[in-house]
């Protein structure tokens, strides 16, 4: 499966998370190597977001293990995992609305450089950080709005800002939760293209949750179908989407 | 943040206006004791000393969106350190010892308390802050032999600096310098990487965590910064009042700094300065005529300000009235604009 | 040993009872309306002063217990009226939690200041109801009957509220609007939000006013006692959990008894002990002993 010649970057073993009766993650296992891009599809409530949150530590598993490069990280806090290279973008709007776009991305650059407690230094003298930020804004086509307040920008912009901010963390693996949900058709392809270019350029591993099956076919040659907290199918999008059980869970639910 | 910090480019030209305003105000504060009565000077001195603790509340409010009711603890610690060492058990009245000592004690206590009360945010933090002030209050109130109980410690002689005994005027200038120094330090801190990341925490907690910001540690450090300001001011306040009592630890005293910050306007860097002057001035004016009513009057003012202008405070109201002139002085140096 | 423990518990009963009422007054607002409000401590203070003043003015030395009950009822209604007025004139304009905490803490200081203007700072007492009821003996300990009356009344009210919330159709509407439920859904189903909010404030006011009035014959009405009340009630909510009636009762017992023990064994730590319990609770159970995980 996938790039077997590469060493495993991130491994999940029998992750389980139940919310009362709801099985959001039911003993899920997955291995992903550097440079490997997986897509994750499934109806609403299948547990996709929960799975990504388990990997980042925003949700604590009931049981199971998570390893990064063979090291157990199950108990680590989200901020520690982010430092180690597991970074997630959000399905819903999670942005610092009262910041300018520049500050928004700069925050993550500072964080990646470990400058949390630097109190007595004027931020404008952090030339290296500011340079990095400007570069990232260029890459993600955000330079022209760099001084706008994030909350005043449209939904599509916020998604791109979220992604750019995640890249500022210099991730090893990027977890992308529905980057195009609520975004118009045209913007959608633009956002995906910006993101995929960077993922490929940096040879990152990525798990991308996406609803648009046509997009999924373009993104990667390996997709996983999720249903009621379990992976029910895996393989090339063309093959997988033809299977009856997949059609049933994806289409049967008004997907 | 100022426009200069956003782009990382050179300071914009209006910095000069701001610099001039600062120099003029400082000069006024420096020469005013030569022209006014001793009483008025003491009042201004108190305003000056109210600024640092109010800045503490301001930092927690504007960067973290939390309400810090516990500043009275650090004022109290500083005050009692001064009262013990320079008054009751006369050891030393050297400010070069008292101020750093109070700073260290405040930092230590804030570090320990932060572990407990900065665990949760919102009303948990506010209530735990009130609770811990009351715990200190009862401690001081009941350790009668050491603290003098409800009588407190009075008759605290003026301190010395570099071994030179300070007069009342000297104490005024020390207060001015300390307060000004802390204001400048706070300005630097507000433009630092630290502040930007604190704003991320209050902006969106999950996103902040997911970009590796150590939320708890940074919150605690902000609490320490706030407490350290109050601790330093507490020493000088004890000398200014010549008296320290357990009411220094009372929760309403801590709430007064929140009120001062709100009156000044937490959207503006000058807010705490304006707030300290307005609060202490109002307290003085109202209690001259109606001794029992000043808390009522200030309480009503704060309530009305919160409902009508929120975080804008007096500074925001004045800015609206004289918009253009003040814009040139760049008073609207926002640290945080509220989304409402 | 056992009897010593019982002694402490019996002595702590008045504090336990008023903290039950007062902490639920605070947590009820928080739970049903999602509103933080520190005004309740001011209502508590006014309730205490109103009870004592009314008792002295109306009954003087000729106490009838029925008359005292009537006055307690008046104090509760006064509390409800004040809190509802505070909501209508003021608190409903507060949009965020931070605003609410700042503004209602100021409002509490206003109430305090007004009490000082009206009644001064010397405590007033009226202990006739307390003396009138006499004492009984429990396992060798003398207990004033008034203590038992207080606890009984507090527990009865909590039971009544639990019944109201869980068994009646109006209670369903309250819970539908609460942090547990879904406000927009409740609205869509025709639950009148304004009415629910008003009634919540009224109930909260009744509890706060009653807490003040009920405790007044023992401790008197004292300027400054609102701080203690605020502290014990709010910490009990942190310990017991927001919106939980069982949690309010349990936490009131814990806080009341431990504080009573501390007041005798280590007086200097009397108020530090409740804080320490709350800290430990937050570490072990961030949402309180009986609390559910809410947005707070
Ligand atoms: N915090 C939570 N509390 C209770 N149930 C939850 C929580 N988060 C998610 N769930 C439930 O878990 C299931 C999976 O949710 P989610 O992972 O968001 O699905 P997806 O992202 O695939 O749409 C859903 O049924 C959802 O209702
Ligand atoms: Mg999802």
What does this structure look like?
The complex is a heterotrimer of chains A (255), B (340) and C (296). In chain A, strands 6-7-8-3-9-10 form a six-stranded mixed sheet, with helices on both faces. In chain A, strands 2-1-4-5 form a four-stranded antiparallel sheet, with helices on one face. Chain A has two domains: 1-85 and 171-255, P-loop containing nucleotide triphosphate hydrolases (Rossmann fold, 3-Layer(aba) Sandwich); 95-170, no CATH class. Chain A is built from nine helices and ten strands. The two termini of chain A are 27 Å apart. By secondary structure, chain A is an alpha/beta fold. In chain A, 36% of the residues lie in helices and 24% in strands. With 340 residues, chain B is mainly alpha-helical. The model of chain B is unreliable at 1-14 and 328-340 (pLDDT under 50). Chain B is built from 16 helices and four strands. In chain B, 55% of the residues are buried. Chain B has a domain at 18-250. Chain C is an all-alpha fold. Chain C is built from twelve helices and two strands. In chain C, helix 1 runs parallel beside helix 6 and helix 10 packs parallel to helix 12. The interface between A and B is large, with 51 and 40 residues.
List the helices and strands and how they pair.
The complex is a heterotrimer of chains A (255), B (340) and C (296).
Chain A: E1 8-19, E2 22-33, E3 37-41, H1 48-56, E4 63-68, E5 71-72, H2 78-84, E6 86-89, H3 101-112, H4 127-139, H5 155-168, E7 173-177, H6 185-201, E8 205-209, H7 213-219, E9 223-227, E10 230-235, H8 237-240, H9 244-251
Parallel strand pairs in A: 3-8, 3-9, 6-7, 7-8
Antiparallel strand pairs in A: 1-2, 1-4, 4-5, 9-10
Helix pairs in contact in A: 3-4, 3-5, 5-6
Chain B: H1 3-7, H2 15-31, H3 38-64, H4 71-88, H5 95-117, H6 123-142, H7 144-147, E1 153-154, E2 160-161, E3 164-165, H8 168-190, H9 193-203, H10 205-210, H11 215-241, E4 243-244, H12 251-264, H13 271-289, H14 294-308, H15 313-321, H16 323-328
Antiparallel strand pairs in B: 1-4, 2-3
Helix pairs in contact in B: 3-8, 3-11, 3-12, 3-13, 4-5, 4-11, 5-11, 8-11, 9-11, 12-13, 12-15, 13-14
Chain C: H1 2-33, H2 39-59, H3 65-89, H4 97-119, H5 128-132, E1 135-138, E2 141-144, H6 145-167, H7 169-177, H8 183-188, H9 193-219, H10 225-240, H11 245-265, H12 272-284
Antiparallel strand pairs in C: 1-2
The structure holds adenosine-5'-diphosphate (ADP) and magnesium ion.
